[in-house]
Structures are given as C-alpha cells and as structure tokens.
Hints:
Layout: H1 17-20, H2 30-34, H3 36-58, H4 68-92, H5 101-125, H6 132-159, H7 164-183, H8 195-198, H9 210-215, H10 220-228, H11 245-281, H12 286-294, H13 304-329, H14 332-345, H15 351-400, H16 403-408, H17 411-453, H18 456-466, H19 468-480, H20 487-512, H21 514-520, H22 523-572, H23 581-609, H24 611-620, E1 645-652, E2 662-669, E3 674-679, H25 685-692, E4 698-705, E5 708-709, H26 715-719, E6 722-725, E7 734-735, H27 736-740, H28 748-757, H29 761-765, E8 774-775, H30 784-798, E9 802-806, H31 814-827, E10 832-836, E11 848-853, E12 856-861, H32 863-869, H33 872-879
Parallel strand pairs: 3-10, 3-11, 6-9, 9-10
Antiparallel strand pairs: 1-2, 1-4, 4-5, 7-8, 11-12
Helix pairs in contact: 3-5, 3-6, 4-5, 4-7, 6-7, 10-20, 11-12, 11-13, 11-15, 13-15, 13-17, 14-15, 14-23, 15-17, 15-22, 17-20, 17-23, 17-24, 18-23, 19-23, 20-22, 28-30, 32-33
GO cellular component, one term: membrane
Transmembrane segments: 36-55, 75-92, 104-122, 128-149, 170-186, 312-332, 352-372, 431-450, 456-475, 551-572
Protein name: ABC-type glutathione-S-conjugate transporter
Amino acid sequence: MKLKMCRKGVSLGTQNASLTLYTDSPDLTPCFQNTVLVWIPCIFLWAAFPFYHFYLKQNNKGYIVMSILNKVKTFFGVLLWLICWLDLFYELGQSRVQHPVKVVTPLILGITMLLATVLIQYERLRGVQSSGLLFIFWLLALLCAIVPFRSRIREAADKGVTDQLRFTTFYIYFGLLLFQLILSCFNEKPPLFSSIVTDPNPCPEYTAGFLSTMTFWWFTSMAIKGYRNPLEDKDLWSLNKKDTSEIVVPTLLKKWETEKAKVQRKNQAVYSTSSTKVLNHVDGGTEEAGVLLLGKNDTKQPSFLKALLKAYGSYFLIGSAYKLMQDLIGFVNPQLLNLLINFTMQKDAPSWWGFALAFLMFFCALLQTIILHQHFQYCFVTGMRLRTAIIGAIYRKSLVITNSAKRSSTVGEIVNLMSVDAQRFMDLTTFLNMLWSAPLQIILALYFLWQYLGPSVLAGFAVMVLLIPLNAAIAMKTRAFQRFYVATSRQLKRLESVSRSPIYSHFSETITGTSVIRAYGRQNAFVLISDKKVDENQKSYYPGIVSNRWLGIRIEFIGNCIVLFAALFAVIERNKLTPGMVGLSVSYALQVTMSLNWMVRMTSDLESNIVAVERVKEYSETETEAPWIVPDKRPPEDWPTQGKVEFNDYSVRYREGLDLVLKNLTLQVKGGEKIGIVGRTGAGKSSMTLCLFRILEAAAGEITIDGVKISEIGLHDLRSKLTIIPQDPVLFSGTLRMNLDPFEKYADEDIWKVLELSHLNRFVSSQPAGINHECSEGGENLSVGQRQLVCLARALLRKTRILVLDEATAAIDLETDDLIQSTIRTQFEDCTVFTIAHRLNTILDYTRVLVLDKGQIAEFDTPTNLIAKKGIFYGMAKDAGLA
C-alpha cells in the first residue's frame, strides 16, 4: 500500500532494494527516515505512558527537590520541543506545503517531546530517581536518528547543504538527544524525608540508575569487598523498605482477611437462598430445612493461594513478562544464524550484511541475558517476600491461637511451617513460570522446525518424547555437580545461616512463654523483635540473590562475546565455509528437548511443594483467642476494687470432644481472702487458674470478678488486672530490668525496692551491670530459686488485687520457699490470693482451702475445720506429717 505522505508514487517502505540492501553503501529512503524512524520512539512513549502513569500513581516515593541535573534535563527537553515546533512553523510558513510528512512528523515529534519534558518533572514529584522509560525513549530516538545523521552528511558532501535551517536544527536535535541519553544515566537525589537519607548503610539498589539496576552494577562494591576481606554483619546493607516485614506481612494478612470475608459473604448468600427454597418445600419449618442444608457439602473455602496472588502477584507478573520476552528473543538468534548461513552462501553479498548479523546476534544474546536475570531477580525477590510473609503470619498466629488449638499443633510442626514450608514457597516462584514457558518454547521450536523439515519433524518429536525419562535423569544428575560458589557468595550464605538461627530461637522462646506474653500484653513487642530478626536475616539473604544475578550476567557476557567472535569469523572466512542448515535444525531440537526436561522436572517439583500452601492455610485457619479489647464492655479503670471472685456452675474442657476437666464449680471468694487449692494430680488445680485468665474458655457457667463477667470483657482488660507466679518461671533473653518491667512504667527506685522485698537485692548488687544484668535464654544463668524470686519481684511490682501462685514453690528449696511465703503474707495482705499448694504447710494459715477431686469441689472450708472433718484434706495433711 502506498501512502502519499512524501510525494506521489513513493511508499513508506524500502522498496528500492538497490538503495537499501544490494549495495556496499546502504541507505533508507528519505520518506522512511522522516516517518517510520521518527515515529517509532514516539509510538513507544505514547503506548507506555498510560501504564507508566498508573504505576507512578500507585508508587509515590516522595518529593525530590529540583536539582541542577533535573533543571538541565528539563531545559534540554524544552529545547527539543522548540526545535520540533520550529521545523513545523517553518514548513507552515512556506507558500505551499510540498509534502504532508513535513508537517505531520514535526507535529507528532513536538507533542512527544513535550510529553517527555512533562514526564521529567512528574517523575521528580513522584520520587523517581532514574527513569527507565525515558532512557529507552532517548535510546530509541537516538538510534533512529543515526540513519538520517549519516544520510545528511553524505548528502551534504555530495550535493552540498540545500536547506540550511533544517540541516542545522537536525544536528542540534541529534546532539540534544545524545545529551539527554547521557543525562538519563545519572540519578537524582533521594526523595525528601526518605528513610534512605537517615539510613547509615542504605542498599545502593534504591539509588541505582536504570542501567545499574538492569546489570546489577550496584552490587560490584560488595563483590569487591567480599573478595578482598571476609564480610561481616556491619558490611551488609539495610533491607529495602518494601521488602521489610513491616510492609510485607500486613499486606498478606490484609488480603487473607479480605478473601475469608468474601467467601463468608458468598456462603451466607448461598445459605440464605437455599434455606428459602427448602422452607418452601419442607413442612415442619426450620429444623428440617437445617438438616437438609447441613447435608449439602457445597460451602466454599477461602483460597490461601488467591490471597498470595493478590498480595504479590503483580510484582511476580513483572518477572513473568521478562520471562516471556526472554523466550521470544531466544528464537531470534537461530533465525539470525540462518541468515548468516545464507550470507556465507552468497559470495557476492555485501560484507556489511555479515557484520550487521554478527552484531545483531551479539545484541540479542546480551539482551536475552539481561532480561533473563531480571526475571530471576523478580522471582527470587517474590520468593523472599513470600518467606517473610509466611514466617510473620505464622508467628502472629501463634500468639493468638486458643489453648485447645495450641495443643493440636506441636512446636516442631509450627517451626517446620516457618522453616521448611516457608522455604518451599520461595522455590515455587521459580517453578510457576516454567509451567507456561516450557510449552511455549516447545510450540515455537516445533513451528520453526516444521518450516524447515516439514512433516518429518513429527517422527523426531516422538523420539524425543521417548527419551524424556533418560534426559530427565541425566539433567537431575548433572544438576548435583553444578554448584559453584565464589568467595562472596559463600560468606553471604554463612551470614544468612548465622542470622537465621536467632529467628527460630526467639520463636521457640515465644512458644514456651506465650501465656506470660499474653498476661503482660507483650504481643506487639515480641512481634517487633521477631520482625527485626527476620529483617536482619534478609539483609544477608538478599545480597546472596543478587550475587547470583551479578555473576550470571558477567559470565554469560563472555559467552555472548564468544558468539560475536564466532559470527565475525564466519563473516571474514565465509568463502571457506559451507552452509549447514542442520545446525539450525539441531539448535531448535535441543531447545525442544531442554524445554521438555524442564517442564517434567518443574511440574514434579511444583506438585511436591504445593502441599506447603495447604499446610500454611490450615494453620492460618486455627481458632484464635477472644478479642484483646471489647470497646463497649470495658470495666472501670480501678477494677477490681475488692478482688471478689465467684464461680457459678462453671465447667471447662481443654478442647471440643474431650471430657470436662472442671465440672459444675460453684464457690464464692471474698476480697482479701487467701485460698489454698489442693488435690491429687489431675484434679484440675492448674486448669482452674487457667480459667481465671481465660486461657481456657468456659464450656458452661460463668466467672465474675467484682460482679463483672470475665467472658464479656477483652482479654487485655482481664489479664492486666491479674498476676501469676507460675510453677515454671519464665524469663526472656534481655536485661533483668526488662524482665521485671517490660513496659518501662516504673523508676529504678521501684525496681530496687521490689528486689529488696523479694530478697534479690544482694545478688543483683553483686553484678557489675546491676539491674541491667543480662539474662540468658530462659534465664539459664540464674538458679531456679533466683528465677522464682524474679517472678515474685515482677508480681510485687504490679501488685494487682488478685494474685495466683501455681505451685510456685514446688521446685525450689525450703529456704527460698520460706522467703516467698513471708513476702506474700506481708506484701499481699489485702489482696485475694489463690495458691496451688505442693507443700501443705504453706497454706495452713490461709483463710480457706479448696480441695478438688476429679474436677469437682470435694471440700471447701478453713484448714482447721477440714482437718477436724478427717476427709480428703486430712488424709493429705497426715501423709505430709501435719496431722
């Protein structure tokens, strides 16, 4: 089709072969130069602008103060716009417009340059330090301008300059394009108030330019440092903000809650519609309808995989797009090879054909390498975020699950979810793209094979299918020997392993002391500690990912150079070479074989690893505790004022399906009473105290404290008003002061006072750090008695109206026991005290003693009266030599 843009009878194409191809000095037609070559970068920018604008709206990094670099870019952009419009008005000023192209092209180019200039400022307002879009635009514009640049020089040399103004404006335009391309390689300053400004060791990726990001050049400093000296923790960069637990974990939790709410609404709608239909056909009403509906197993379950895709799918899709581009480019080089073979057959072909093909092969291979490693980068970073999100979600869940749910999951199972299954989520990201990539490569390879071999390709394809098991076995065996680590990579992996251990240690501590963490309301503090440890681990893991990409690009660049030199050798020695169409066919056949092997292996790996999704989903749906705060049921600030506790026909079980451990307890305890709780092993003593904290929820009945039903108020309002000294003292890694006053509510004088009352003053004073003495994990550097006294000091510091001692002196010596009992009698004189007694002599002076037997109240009276009745308590006292 001929478009009369230039002059009559001349098309946009390159139909004049003697001018463009079969000559030692090729050129393109003036019409093609003034239309297609000018429009290509314009079309690219306008096509990409809507998507880029949407991206910038969604990712505002902050405001960048206008710099000299930005001013120069803007100034050159305005100059380019003015030059384009100068050409337009110059043509319009002519008495008669000879060719429409001379008006249309400057108009399109001028509007495009105006858009590019506006984008420079818009990117600055959105915090973009280096623009990949504008870099590609300037590069395309410059490459497309090289042909007119050469043509005008030749024309001026042959015929002289016929149009002085256009000749001058074009070379100014070309120079400005070159300057813009160079300037786009430099970065702007970080956005105002950005975290990177205050970060002492920021990751250079955040401020890296487009070229540095694509080639991972920003990692070179660490590669050099790791080669020269062993890497240390201080050498690691801070984690990028978007990769931290603070951002990653809430994103997944929000999407998961949204998915569950969506499915719940759909199920309710289905139930409502179905119940209406059933009621219209069933006589007898709702009961029969309910039976029919319950018989249907058509309730929809929320999909954890959907939540993952919604949270991180958009980022992963960018990597998939890179993979698609890499696959398509992978089939360009064989076609170029085919052209190169044909070139060697044509002895009279111009030499520039071969050189052009050689450089095109090099360029395609280099582009393929860069795109492939960008694909890997996006896949592995997505996997890293998945791992962070899974660990964070499981940790948060473990802090709020009910006691019955906790008993159904062992610590080992939970830790396994955080370690093995979280790692499998990372592995899945590399498998998913191969599920569609491998079939695509096979289809394309077979298509091209069909072009050269025809129907005979089917026979070869059948043979390859039969050889899949052998090829897969060879590939799996080969992969075992393909593990090579440079010095930097080894050290990064070592640092990653070292920093991973504290995550599991902290998690184990948390699981062990969950009840204490809940009682003190320290969930958020422990979540922050966990997030910090995860981020420390990711700081060393992320450079490990980048090191693979960094090394891969450089090694494959050498391979690309080999392709270039081989192609150049074929050009130079073409007279001695014979064509080999077999080589082209073999390359496609190898592509099919490799893709089939990958598809088989990735499918099997995906199948084995997808189970991790189900396990994490199952754990995320376990039952959680009651709300932390119930806004419309909050008790008064000074509650409880008396400490009166009542059990009204109270029963409890550890989880559904098990027998009751407490059965129909009914008792009243006045404020200030001291109640001893005794009974044989399994009588329900500890269960009764757990019920006070609502660690176990009631199966029937109620517990009230000063007339307030504890089942109606939030857990924080309840547990913050109770104090417990447990049988097994719980201490956390940190200072002694932190273990006593985690909220930092009290002054040092108050701390020393309770240490004196708990008889720890002498020990703490003897330590060089005093109250800042460092406690090891679980308080292992303290004796059992000292740990118990620390718990007593903690209780003295809070001094709530209700105190629970759960066999607090069972595992300590008599001297420490006497100290604790003495302090309790004097310091908690006006408080209600529940003591589960191991040594009966400690409760003989108590107000009353509650004797439990098989979860029921067997006796409840003063110690004197119980001994006089000669019942169960009398027998226990007699066995202890007290009666």
